[in-house]
Design brief:
Layout (H helix, E strand, L loop, with lengths): L3 H23 L5 E6 L9 E6 L2 H9 L20 H6 L16 H4 E6 L8 H18 L3 E4 L3 H17 L3 E4 L6 H10 L3 E5 L16 E4 L10 H12 L4 H18 L10 E5 L3 H4 L3 H7 L5 E4 L5 E4 L5
Parallel strand pairs: 3-8, 3-9, 4-6, 4-7, 5-6, 7-8
Antiparallel strand pairs: 1-2, 9-10
Helix pairs in contact: 5-6, 8-9
Length: about 325
């Protein structure tokens, strides 16, 4: 037998659900992007989703009111030596930003190595050549490598191709989604100083492995987002509708910020040393490549060939 309070609570929950479904179906708020997420695997729940197309329009009036003080801090907020992109994204245009020097001596602690003659990622040759380049990187640092991917299918393919060779060198290979949960993989990676960890999106940021266990970060591809999510599509369409350049105004800055996050996994203390290797020749061949290189701390930049020959170049200024 139901109590009156339980019936009232059920009625309120149903009314809230009805209001939410009605709002989703009518889609009257033009500032929101609406989409449906279908269940993954054995899941049975369909999610009706809505989010602001431009979060700055929501955050700006709430956070950056006249007379208010807000502190936002991170090592990876700037693009091309400017905070303008981040400020526009969070609705903080016209506020005062401050960029401080890093406490680390990157010129002494790290270097950047770039594969000069690897095939470009959109070609079939890239998938064939990538395992060999990654194995070269693993040998160079004797394991101790975090290899960052943007494609789960490519990551699994490379892992299958290299599993025997990596184990034959005496290194442990761990692959996200195959060998355990994220936190388990990180703990094992820290414990086994000659291990190699293949990771996807969640390993590009928030990973803190100081010391000998991580001396090599390998970025397999410049992390341009695939414009297949409704929110990304909405933002690109909004820029195009006002005559802007969606690549320069959104796609490129977002990729640079994620690139900086990935490379930032390397140096976590003043004692750390290591290499950031980029296995995407577009960073040298395309006009936008300079923006990626200059986004990293100033340090030696090595251009590496598939034969192992190398030369150093002067890093561009931001």
């Amino acid at each position: 037998m139901f109590r009156r309070g339980e019936i009232g609570a059920a009625r309120a929950a149903l009314q809230s659900l009805r209001t939410g479904v009605t709002a989703f179906l009518e889609q009257i708020d033009r500032d929101l992007t609406y989409w449906v997420e279908l269940p993954q695997g054995d899941g049975k729940n369909v999610a009706l989703c809505a989010a602001p197309s431009d979060i700055g329009q929501v955050l700006g009036p709430q956070l950056f009111r006249e007379g208010s003080s807000v502190i936002m801090t991170s090592a990876t907020l700037s693009v091309n030596g400017s905070l303008e992109y981040f400020e526009s994204r969070v609705g903080a245009a016209g506020t005062d930003g401050l960029m401080l020097d890093s406490p680390f001596d990157h010129a002494r602690q790290m270097k950047i190595s770039i594969a000069a003659d690897i095939a470009e990622p959109e070609t079939e040759a890239y998938a064939r050549e990538l395992p060999g380049w990654i194995m070269q990187c693993i040998d160079r640092s004797q394991g101790k490598a975090l290899v960052l991917f943007t494609s789960a299918a490519l990551m699994r393919s490379v892992a299958a191709a290299l599993a025997h060779e990596v184990s034959g060198r005496g290194f442990t290979l761990m692959v996200q989604g195959i060998d355990g949960q994220r936190h388990q993989l990180l703990e094992e990676f820290k414990r086994d100083v000659h291990s190699v960890l293949f990771g996807l999106d969640s390993f590009w940021m928030g990973v803190d492995v100081p010391g000998e266990a991580l001396e090599h970060v390998v970025i397999t591809r410049l992390p341009f987002a695939f414009p297949n999510h409704p929110l990304i599509e909405a933002r690109l369409e909004s820029i195009a509708s006002r005559g802007g350049n969606s690549f320069l105004e959104y796609t490129l800055p977002e990729a640079i910020l994620k690139f900086k996050q990935g490379a930032g996994r390397l140096i976590r203390t003043r004692e750390d040393r290591g290499i950031v290797t980029v296995l995407d020749s577009r960073i040298l061949k395309k006009s936008y490549g300079r923006a990626f290189i200059s986004s990293l701390p100033k340090c030696p930049v090595e251009i590496l060939s598939s034969e192992g020959e190398s030369e150093y170049i002067e890093p561009p200024e931001p």
